[in-house]
Specification:
This protein has 326 residues and is mainly alpha-helical. This is Beta-carotene 15,15'-monooxygenase.
Length: 326
C-alpha cells in the first residue's frame, strides 16, 4: 500500500477515499444516541449565532467528519508536495493524515479542532512561504488574522501566535514590523469582536474571554494508559523517521530543514495548548496531526526495505483497528 501511495497516481484518490471510510468502520459500528458539535466558542456566538449542537444525526455527523478529513488530506498533501518537504511528490502525506485522524474515536466526529485543521494547514502553507518572499509583513498579518478566526472557533488555537515568532526566527532575519504585524492581525479580529460586545452593551463579558490565560499548567494528569497503547506504533515510526531525518538533515535544502524544525515546534505547541481549555477533550490533539503526519510521511517516503515498511504500516493500521474495536 505504501508503494502505491508513493506515486502521484489519480487512482490513489479513490483508494484514499475508500481508506478514509475503512478506518472509520469501528465508529460506524457504534450506536450513538447523540453527538454534539459546538461549532464556535460561546463568546463568539454573540457575533455569529449558529447553533449546530443537535443539527446532525450521529451517522451524518460521522459521515461529514470523514468527508472533511478527506478534503483536508488532499489540501495538506498539496501543501507538503508544493514545498518539497519529502524526497519526491506523493500521496503519502494524505495517507498519513487520514491515518492520524483515525487514531481515536473522538477524532472521528465533528469538532472545533477538526474545523481548525483547515486553518492550521493554511497557516503551515503561509509559514513555509515566509523564506521565499522579500517582504512578508502582509503574509504575517494574514497569519495573525487566521489565528484570530481560529480562536473564535476553538480558544486553544490562540497558542499558534507563539508559532508566528518561532517561524520568523527560523525563516526571516529580524524585522520588528513583521513581529508586530502578526499581533496586529490577531488583535484586529478581536477588536471587531470587542466593538460588537460594546454595541450590545456587554463589554464586561468580553473581558471574561481571557480568563483561561490565567490558568496554571496542570501538574497532575489522570491518564488511562490502556487508551493510548495505539500510540506505540506511532512512536516507533516517529523514532525511525527522526533517525532518518538526522542522517539526511545536512544533505537537505535549507528551506526543508527549517520547515521540519517549524513543524516540530508546531507539534509541541499544538499539544501543549490543551491547558487553555479546562474541559478539553481528546479531539483537541487533532491539531497535532498535520505536523505529525509530515514526519510519518517522511519515513515512508525514504524507507528502502519494502518488506519492512509495508509490514510496519500494516501492523500500524491493524493496531489502530484493534484498539478502536476493543
Amino acid at each position: 500500500m505504501i508503494n502505491q501511495f508513493r506515486k502521484l497516481n489519480p487512482i490513489n484518490l479513490l483508494l484514499l477515499l475508500a481508506y478514509t471510510f475503512f478506518m472509520r468502520i469501528a465508529i460506524f459500528n457504534e450506536t450513538h444516541a447523540q453527538l454534539n458539535f459546538d461549532f464556535l466558542e460561546p463568546f463568539a456566538r454573540l457575533l455569529i449565532n449558529i447553533d449546530l449542537d443537535n443539527a446532525f444525526s450521529p451517522s451524518t455527523n460521522i459521515f461529514l467528519a470523514a468527508v472533511l478529513v478527506f478534503i483536508q488530506a488532499l489540501i495538506f498533501n498539496r501543501v507538503v508536495n508544493n514545498h518539497n518537504l519529502l524526497a519526491k511528490p506523493s500521496f503519502l502525506p494524505a495517507l498519513m493524515f487520514v491515518t492520524g485522524t483515525s487514531l481515536f474515536m473522538p477524532f472521528m466526529i465533528l469538532s472545533p479542532a477538526l474545523i481548525c485543521n483547515f486553518l492550521l494547514i493554511w497557516v503551515i502553507d503561509k509559514f513555509l512561504k515566509l523564506g521565499k518572499t522579500p517582504n512578508s509583513i502582509t503574509t504575517v498579518f494574514d497569519i495573525g488574522m487566521i489565528i484570530g478566526v481560529g480562536t473564535l472557533i476553538y480558544f486553544p488555537f490562540m497558542a499558534m501566535i507563539v508559532m508566528i515568532f518561532l517561524a520568523l526566527l527560523l525563516f526571516r532575519s529580524f524585522n520588528w514590523r513583521e513581529w508586530v504585524a502578526g499581533l496586529v492581525g490577531f488583535i484586529t479580529v478581536f477588536f471587531f469582536l470587542a466593538v460588537f460586545y460594546y454595541w450590545k452593551d456587554n463589554l464586561s463579558s468580553f473581558y471574561q474571554i481571557w480568563k483561561p490565560l490565567s490558568n496554571k499548567f496542570p501538574s497532575v494528569f489522570k491518564i488511562n494508559y490502556n487508551d493510548y497503547l495505539v500510540l506505540i506504533p506511532v512512536a516507533v515510526i516517529i523514532i525511525l523517521a527522526s533517525l532518518q531525518l538526522r542522517e539526511n538533515f545536512f544533505r537537505s535544502f535549507i528551506s526543508t530543514r527549517k520547515g521540519f524544525q517549524m513543524l516540530f515546534f508546531m507539534f509541541i505547541v499544538a499539544g501543549a495548548s490543551f491547558y487553555l481549555k479546562p474541559d478539553f477533550r481528546t479531539w483537541h490533539f487533532l491539531l497535532c496531526v498535520p505536523p505529525g503526519a509530515v514526519l510519518l510521511a517522511y519515513y515512508f517516503s525514504n524507507a528502502e526495505k519494502r518488506w519492512f515498511y509495508e509490514t510496519l504500516f500494516l501492523l500500524f493500521v491493524l493496531s489502530v483497528q484493534y484498539f478502536l474495536f476493543v
